[in-house]
Amino acid sequence: MAKVATIEIEGKKYELPIVVGSENETAVDITQLRSQSGAITLDPGYKNTGACESAITFLDGEKGILRYRGYSIEELAEKADFLEVAYLLIFGELPNKSQLDNFYTDILDQSIVNEDMKTVIKGFPESAHPMGVLSSLTSALTAFNPKSVNVDSEEEMYRAIVKILAKFPVLAAWTLRKKKGEDLLNRDTNLGYVESLLRMMFQKGTKPYKQNKTVVDALDKLLILHADHEQNCSTSTVRIVGSSHAGLFASISAGVSALWGPLHGGANQAVIEMLEEIKADGGDTTKFINKAKDKDDPFRLMGFGHRVYKNFDPRAKIIKKAADEVLAQLGVDDPILEIAKGLEKVALEDQYFIDRKLYPNVDFYSGIIYRAMGIPTEMFTVMFAVGRLPGWIAQWREMRLRKEPIGRPRQIYIGETQRKFKMIENR
Ligand code: SDX
Question: Most Cβ neighbours (<10 Å): which of 26, 72, 308, 389?
């Protein structure tokens, strides 16, 4: 017997189908609500609204569970590498050796970025925020790869996918080189995906960049932890832009812009700036906790709280542990790590945070590791974007293959009702 929900509007009853997912999540299917009743639903911020059915990522906010294609984030962070996870998210299965080798070869074949793209980045002032530069460069890629726009076949989509996976890290590294006034490097095809990114970011002149295994392993793990997170703000942006068939690069560019915000991916930069402010202010964490609780104070505890996780963000647990290990292995003694731990302790014992189920999220500790690795604060969200790229691609591909309709939400109008025009002399 199909499950239904019954709602009553002005004395009339309507039955709406209930949809149950593979993890027993339940939804009321309202696709026929307006045609049957004339009514729509209203849900600012989509806190209670499912935009789609998806088979990519499952998260349980109450239990602090995160899985990519059924594999736990804990196992993937421990046992997989970033490119394997990218393949898993995009195509649905862990690759065997030949599939992974072919995938990387296809990516390497596309890793040269058109020299004229250097003219595009040269137009930016050094003061430009790397996320704004990255979003612009990603959109500009379309001009040099016009065949990546109208991709209707899986083969055409695959070609666009390997292109953006190849070129995006190059552009990400260029945003750092631009800020430092250094020459723009292309990928070294003898290096792995993460090693190549680090070299493009940090190589000095012609002196070969010396890879540090601790840094490579830590960055690989951080990229895995950021790779997907179901229908978050930037992924929803990628899906809705992609739903107009605007093309993959334009959709990813829009996702970069959405991720930039301090309430979303920009929080990792804001966390470090907050911890630095606390340190400069003498390290009084209680003062900042009280500011965060004060409704008249716009200050929020950055890196705390989450739309879905009402328990610990499982990624935060992994990153917190990694922060201790990486700083010890690198011999870095960063006082803001202790401030972060002190802030976390005070917050987790404070009724305001307990009542609102506010816990550290993925952004609370990640910046401390990036900093220890020598990555400038303004580049933290760029690193988040490099990690989230496979997730954005997977979600865009799923939306296109499922031939989902163009995203176009409704609204409830609350403005002026009809009124007559007044000539200016009568106003
Ligand atoms: C990411 O969605 C994803 O999956 C995102 C992400 C991903 O991987 O893609 O996980 C990545 O974006 C993580 C979140 C990073 N952002 C931050 O750390 C910024 C600080 N956090 C908050 O701005 C906030 O918690 C949000 C934006 C993350 C979530 O906001 P919601 O779900 O809209 O919750 P809300 O603003 O309605 O807050 C509920 C209550 C409010 O208090 P009351 O009005 O009920 O009294 O909790 C309070 C808020 O004022 N609150 C906070 C707080 N977060 C929420 N109070 C102080 N400090 C905070 N950080």
Answer: 389
Residues in the chain: 427
Q: Would you give the DSSP letter of residue 4?
A: E
Q: What is the pLDDT of residue 2?
A: 79
Structure tokens at 307: 């739309």
- Reply yes or no on whether the pLDDT at 1 is more than 80: no
228: nearest Cα among 390, 398, 103:
390
Separation CA 165–CA 176 (nearest Å)? 18
User: What distance in angstroms lies between residue 303's CA and the mean position of ligand 1's atoms?
Assistant: 8
Report the half-sphere exposure of 422 (CA within 13 A, side-chain side): 6
> What tokens were used for 166?
């190849």
For CA atoms 199, 205, 209, 215, the dihedral sign is negative
Read off the pLDDT of residues 361-387 as tens digits, 9 standing for 90 and up: 999 999 999 999 999 999 999 999 999
> Known catalytic residue: 363?
yes
Beta carbons of 104 and 194 less than 8 angstroms apart? no
User: Tokens 């059915």 correspond to what residue?
Assistant: 53
Distance 139 CA to ligand 1 centre (A): 29
- φ, ψ of residue 304 in degrees (nearest 5): -115, 145
Percent of the chain with pLDDT over 70: 100
- The phi, psi pair for 334, rounded to 5°, reads -105, 110
Q: What is the identity of the amino acid at 316? A: A
